[in-house]
Amino acid sequence: MSIWEDKNTLAGKFWSNTVVEDCPIYDMHGHMGSLNTIYFKRDSASEMVAHMRRAGVKRLVFSHHHALFDANLRNAEVHKICLGYPEELRMYVAVNPHYPSHIKEDLRLFDSWRPYAVGLKILADYHRVKVSDRKYEYALSFANERRLPVLFHTWGGSSQSGYEELRKVAERYPDLIIFAGHSIYGDWDNAVKLVKESPGKVYLELTAIPGVNGVIEQLVENAGSESLLLGSDLPWFDEFQVIGGVLSSKISDEDKRNIFYRNVEKLFGKNW
Amino acid sequence: MKELFFYDPMCSVGNDFLGKRSSSTPGELLAEMDFYGIDKALVQYNNLAGAGAVYANKWIADFISSDTSDRLRGVWCLLPEQCGELPDDLFSAMSEKKICALTLDPFDHRWVAGKYSIGKIMAEAAERKIPVLMNYYNRKWEELYRFVETFPDNRLFIHDTTRHGTDRLVRPLLEYFPNVYYMLTAYWVPEGIRDLAVLYGADRLLYASCFPTYNHGSMMFALKNSGLDMASIAKIAGVNMQNLLEESWGK
Ligand SMILES: [Zn+2]
After folding, report:
1. What percentage of chain B has pLDDT greater than the value 70?
2. Would you list the domain boundaries of chain A?
3. pLDDT, tens only, B100-154
4. Is the pLDDT of residue B19 over 90?
5. Is the pLDDT of residue A18 over 90?
6. What is the C-alpha separation between A182 and A154, in angstroms, rounded?
7. Fewer CB within 10 Å: C terminus or N terminus of chain B?
8. Are A43 and A33 in contact (CB under 8 A)?
9. Chain A positions with Cβ closer than 8 Å to B
10. Do residue A238 and residue B165 have CB atoms under 8 angstroms apart?
11. Distances (CA, A) of A134 to A71, A163, A169, A172, A202
12. What ipTM was assigned to the predicted interfaces of this complex?
């Protein structure tokens, strides 16, 4: 009997029901809007939320592509988008190190954007500024004081967002909650090391990993499922592919529940 | 009863020389397939780029001959016709050894794939409707476009493992070349499988895992939940692949 046929397992339940009531799914890494290098058909809030509802994804935390890759859409506009979907959407305030005045203006408004604004997003490789650079100091100090999560785009071997850079940030800001987007993709041993060096502070976020053979297994075994978060990069990746990638990994159902929702509820509570 | 029949055309076996491991025996691969409910698979050599086609083709023939389940079929790798590195009667050797599809890696094996190097083989493959897996053209879109233009009568299975939405690259080929089939391996565009099936027909899409890079399960779940009707899902999961092979090799 395959994993999908065994109705006593989470995989079997999802296969027959698509949405499993006692297993909500929080997607902690999304975007919105079009982007230069990639085809997206469904990148608007309404289309993304429709896809999430179909897949049983309860909530998505996103940063808008146009706030990250274009300096003309501001985070205040993104907050307005969230207001249209109070159940499904939460935002990371996009930080662009090339516009320090924007950072200050936006963070002054952060509290008025709660509960929709839950943290910050830093995209060092694309902005070509190392995460340890002083250009992020204002934003990271702000997050550190408030113990906010910051979702960093991280990638193995990157001089801007790799292990060495993140380690510096973890040391410099002791109260910062680091969401390592893509789990320092490919540099799995150092991703695990980062978690172990900063217990309770670093979460490995799984965007682009579910379905890649054996990686979730390796991270669960070495870092523990308590430090993993689900992410899709929606509108990049299909939620079913992402959920299917976790369900099809060779880990326990308890580990899968940690990834799907328990770790998030431990951080943010059930109502966030 | 099992709900869907899955045929995986893109599975690699054996360990490559840079440390990427895969199943070494049919038993290991079948256990992996059974874990997810994959019924049948086309298998090629995981170290084809490194070890070369001559060695890989023998390795795959041995692997298939040691499979007692009859659920596995092999893929052989092409080389230029002029060098005598392939069996003289390629197609009867394939039939005898349960090799049902071809692939080619002119980039690692240093030759130019075109009419002069493999024109005769490709003409016969087209006549026999034998699938040619274009997996070594992954990410090499300009080369792939040229190849498809050169051999429009061949059944070419294409894919892309970047995980980036590849519609800008794939759709023109699906529109203009009816013999191009798209293997879904790392096609992760939200609701995208349904869009492609509506535009080009479910007959043009094939479930495929790209094991051991990806596991078999995530795309199974994505396809099952693609939003297509069950008949279309069944086609993409395995019926198309089964039919395509029967058209070339019989039942
Ligand atoms: Zn992202």
Report:
1. 100
2. 24-268
3. 999 999 999 999 999 999 999 999 999 999 999 999 999 999 999 999 999 999 9
4. no
5. no
6. 6
7. N
8. yes
9. 2-5, 11, 14-15, 18, 37-42, 48, 51, 54-55, 208, 210-214, 234-245, 247-250
10. no
11. 20, 18, 11, 11, 21
12. 0.96
For residue B206, pLDDT beyond 70: yes
Selected for mutation to probe chain B from A241, A242, A248, A250 (highest B CB count within 10 Å) is A241
Q: How far apart are CA A105 and CA A142, in angstroms?
A: 12
- Residues B131 and A202: their CA atoms lie apart, in Å, by 47
- pLDDT > 90: percent of chain B: 94
Residues of chain A contacting residue B219, judged by C-beta atoms under 8 Å apart: 211, 241, 244
Residues whose beta carbons lie less than 5 angstroms from ion ligand 1: A 233
- Residue B100 corresponds to which tokens in the numbers above? 């049902």
Residues of chain A with C-beta less than 8 angstroms from the C-beta of B35: 2-3, 250
Q: Does B194 touch chain A (CB under 8 A)?
A: no
pLDDT above 90 (res A15): yes
Domain residue extents for chain B: 7-249
Residue B1: what pLDDT?
60
Name residue, tokens 């397992």.
A9
Q: How far is A180 from chain B (nearest CA, A)?
A: 20
Q: Per-residue pLDDT averaged across B237-249, rounded? A: 97
Q: Where are the alpha helices (DSSP H) in chain A?
A: 10-17, 45-55, 65-68, 75-83, 100-108, 124-127, 137-146, 163-172, 188-197, 215-223, 239-247, 253-257, 263-268
Choose among B211, B213, B222: nearest Cβ to A241: B222
Q: How far apart are CA B69 and CA B3, in angstroms?
A: 21
- For the domain spanning A24-268, the CATH number is 3.20.20.140
- For residue B153, what pLDDT is reported? 98
Q: In angstroms, rounded to a whole number, what is the distance separating the alpha carbons of residues B135 and B138? A: 5
Report chain B residues whose CB lies below 8 A from the CB of A60: none
**A211/B215 Cβ within 8 A:** yes
Task: Answer whether B190 sits within 8 Å of A235, measured CB to CB.
Answer: yes
Are residues A41 and B192, on separate chains, in Cβ contact within 8 Å?
yes
CATH architecture designation of domain B7-249? Alpha-Beta Barrel (3.20)
Q: Do A238 and B189 touch (CB under 8 A)?
A: yes
Burial of A171 (0-12, 13-18, 19+ CB in 10 A): exposed
The model's confidence at residue A75, banded by pLDDT at 50, 70 and 90, is: very high
d(CA A4, CA A10): 9
pLDDT of residue B195: 97
